[in-house]
Amino acid sequence: MTIDLYTWSTPNGRKASIMLEEVGLSYRVTAVDISKGEQHDPEYRALSPNGKIPVIVDHEAEGADGRPRRVFESGNILVYLAEKTGMLLPASGEGRTETLGWLFFQMAHLGPMVGQWHWFKNAAPAKSDMAISRYREESLRLLEVMNGRLGEVPYLGGADYSIADVASYAWAKAASDELANEDAEAVAGLAPLLDWLARVGERPAVQRGMAIPDDEQKKAAAERASIEGPAGGGQAKP
């Protein structure tokens, strides 16, 4: 296999699997069960210093230590694979700067805000209506920003599908689905965004990438022993 992918079924993890499917590289999946704290295992932290998924290891490239090159952080993985294959990222010009701008929009704003909304709503040990409302409203605002862009051009980077769309799809889908479940009117006016979600979601590579890790890969993770002690999670959040 050209690439080892370490991932889990989260929007960040799905960026990497969608991208690998889009560019057609051969890859092998290791499911990193974040509910068991596997992302904090010292061996995994050697690949991902911040203890997050996803990570890839490229066996066709050499790292500074002479081993196959590790690439961590999901946005970095997208840029790396785009440059490795010459796909989904313009080499220069305005198309490149627009694509990278929307990639960083996802990394700095959409992902963190939707993630915080989900955590305070569904996982926090103590409920905070203020936090839930704050992150919900900011998530909706960011979807409205995307909607405005997609009312002007077919894809976030412009005329062509790119890593900006790969990065944003799973996060925007999760946020719009949750908003629609709460209040259908909250997303009813986001027609360009909903059209983009439908078009991107119809891509076969996106459908395959969204299904990674699959049930067999998750079963392998479930059968591994839980990590003991601080590496099993402690006060760190997945």
TrEMBL record:
Domain GST N-terminal: 1-89
Extent of the signal sequence: none
UniProt-listed Pfam families: GST_N_2
Disordered: annotated span: 208-238
Biased composition range(s): Basic and acidic residues: 215-226
InterPro entries on file: Glutathione-S-Trfase_C-like, Glutathione-S-Trfase_C_sf, Glutathione_S-Trfase, Glutathione_S-Trfase_N, Thioredoxin-like_sf
CDD domains linked: GST_N_Ure2p_like (cd03048)
Domain GST C-terminal span(s) in chain numbering: 92-222
Protein origin, superkingdom: Bacteria
Coiled-coil residues: none
Protein name stated in the entry: GST-like protein
Taxonomy of the source species: Bacteria, Pseudomonadati, Pseudomonadota, Gammaproteobacteria, Pseudomonadales
